[in-house]
Amino acid sequence: MYGALWRLLPGPTWVRVILALLIALAVVFVLFEYVFPVIEPYMPFQQGGLDVG
Predict the structure, then answer these.
(1) How many Å apart are CA 39 and CA 31, to the nearest integer?
(2) How far is residue 18 from each of residues 23, 41, 51, 52, 53, measured CA to CA in Å?
(3) What is the DSSP letter of 41?
(4) What is the DSSP letter of 42?
(5) What is this structure's pTM?
(6) How far apart are CA 20 and CA 29, in angstroms?
(7) pLDDT tens digits for 1-53?
(8) Contact at 8 Å (CB) between 9 and 16?
(9) Which residues of 13-52 are buried (b: 16+ CB within 10 A; e: fewer)?
């Protein structure tokens, strides 16, 4: 799968590396800004800090 994505990117290797990094950063940004806030109420995490002691 990664090979197919790599072949779809245009340009020489250094351009492909830069494009791959930009795409990865864009995916992380979208996840943190849009996806995670929407699914957060449905996650089974407790609200609160650590109970030490």
Answers:
(1) 10
(2) 9, 35, 43, 44, 48
(3) G
(4) G
(5) 0.72
(6) 14
(7) 788 989 999 999 999 999 999 999 999 999 999 999 999 888 887 666 666 65
(8) yes
(9) eeebeeeeeeeeeeeeeeeeeeeeeeeeeeeeeeeeeeee
